[in-house]
């Protein structure tokens, strides 16, 4: 029986070019990038080189590139980070009721911390009504 993979939303098969680029890291660059010894410094350089290359590719500054372990960490980092940066300045988050659990759980956490969160419904096709988004904006 032929297997068909249909969960590209969660993860995708590794592209051969990515595997080729990553093989040196898997084989010999495996130190803890936060340490000062040579194995760690080699790993740090590989990460910094990747950050520089990605920044150049998308027209960003290397300092603007943050690597995370995956989508859940990235969602938490973004939502909680922005909320923390806006602490004491209000802040209102508008999201849909069908977001990934990582987003919804982060929003629930922020609600407990006193942030105002608005969860908008979607139609049967998963679309937000732009007029409802406009109505939800508080400032």
UniProtKB/TrEMBL annotation:
This is Aminotransferase class V-fold PLP-dependent enzyme. Residues 4-138 form the Aminotransferase class V domain. GO terms for molecular function: cysteine desulfurase activity; transaminase activity. It comes from Aerophobetes bacterium. Belongs to the class-V pyridoxal-phosphate-dependent aminotransferase family. NifS/IscS subfamily. Its cofactor is pyridoxal 5'-phosphate. Keywords: Aminotransferase, Transferase. It catalyses: (sulfur carrier)-H + L-cysteine = (sulfur carrier)-SH + L-alanine. The keyword Protease does not apply. The keyword Transferase applies. PANTHER family: CYSTEINE DESULFURASE, CYSTEINE DESULFURYLASE FAMILY MEMBER.
